[in-house]
Design brief:
By secondary structure, this protein is of the alpha/beta class. The protein is built from eight helices and ten strands. The protein has helices at 11-16, 32-47, 63-68, 95-102, 115-123, 135-140, 176-188, 199-205, and strands at 4-5, 22-27, 53-58, 76-81, 84-90, 112-113, 127-131, 147-148, 168-172, 193-196. The strands form two sheets. A five-stranded mixed β-sheet has the order 1-3-2-4-5. The longest helix is centred in the N-terminal third of the chain and has 16 residues, at 32-47. The protein is elongated, with a radius of gyration of 21 Å. It starts with a strand and ends in a 7-residue tail after the last helix. 33% of the residues are buried.
Length: 212
């Protein structure tokens, strides 16, 4: 996804009326730090395509928008959600800081399951938890009723994860990223699975039961 240039004329439509949260990169042609920030902003746009709208505003060509945001230096980033400014940071901002700034506003992944949701679904026997950590970690502690399919076995054992019994398989690892990566790969190959937000660490931190 490319970063879209917006102007005084279309700013309201492109930004304030956007259904998605919007990251705005205020910049200028003469600004060297702006040129360093642009590829970082473009990476964020690509990684969060469909979840975050990313636009750029040339402050010299669009003085009305620049004045409305009281831009005193460039580059400056702002985040707008539902027509309201919810964050901002001036200067050459690292990618990690940008992601941290927008993360709370991103729509949840359709496959993401929160710990409290998973607990209720397990109790209702509507899902099967799948531990993708190594065998030792699974043996020490796991979510009650979880089966073990190590991450490097997921491809060869994918048929076991298809919800033939009508119960969705929800993957979890130590953290969110471990299971999300595995779930994304399976979903791309046609196996419908979910993943646990927060992983085993989040599950335990929220006080849910574990089997040892």
């Amino acid at each position: 996804m490319t970063v879209r240039a917006v102007t005084d004329a279309n700013f309201e439509q492109e930004v304030l009326a956007s259904e998605l949260p919007v990251l705005i990169d205020f910049k200028a042609d003469w600004c060297q730090p702006c040129k360093q920030l642009s590829p970082i902003v473009a990476e964020v746009a690509q990684e969060l395509e469909g979840k975050l709208k990313v636009v750029e505003v040339d402050v010299d060509r669009n003085p009305n928008v620049a004045a409305a945001f009281r831009i005193q230096s460039v580059p400056t980033l702002f985040v707008v959600h539902q027509g309201q400014v919810v964050g901002g940071q001036p200067g050459l901002v690292p990618k990690e800081a940008i992601l941290e700034m927008v993360q709370p506003l991103l729509p949840a992944d359709a496959a993401e399951v929160k710990p409290d949701e998973l607990a209720k679904l397990i109790q209702a026997q509507r899902v099967v938890a799948v531990d993708v950590r190594d065998a030792g970690s699974y043996g020490r502690a796991h979510i009650p009723g979880a089966i073990h399919v190590a991450k490097d076995e997921l491809t060869t054992r994918a048929s076991e994860l298809r919800p033939a019994d009508g119960r969705l398989r929800v993957l979890y690892g130590r953290t969110t990223d471990e299971a999300k990566e595995a779930a994304d790969g399976l979903r791309e190959s046609g196996v419908d699975v979910g993943f646990l937000d927060g992983g085993m660490l989040g599950w335990e931190a929220e006080g849910f039961e574990v089997e040892r």
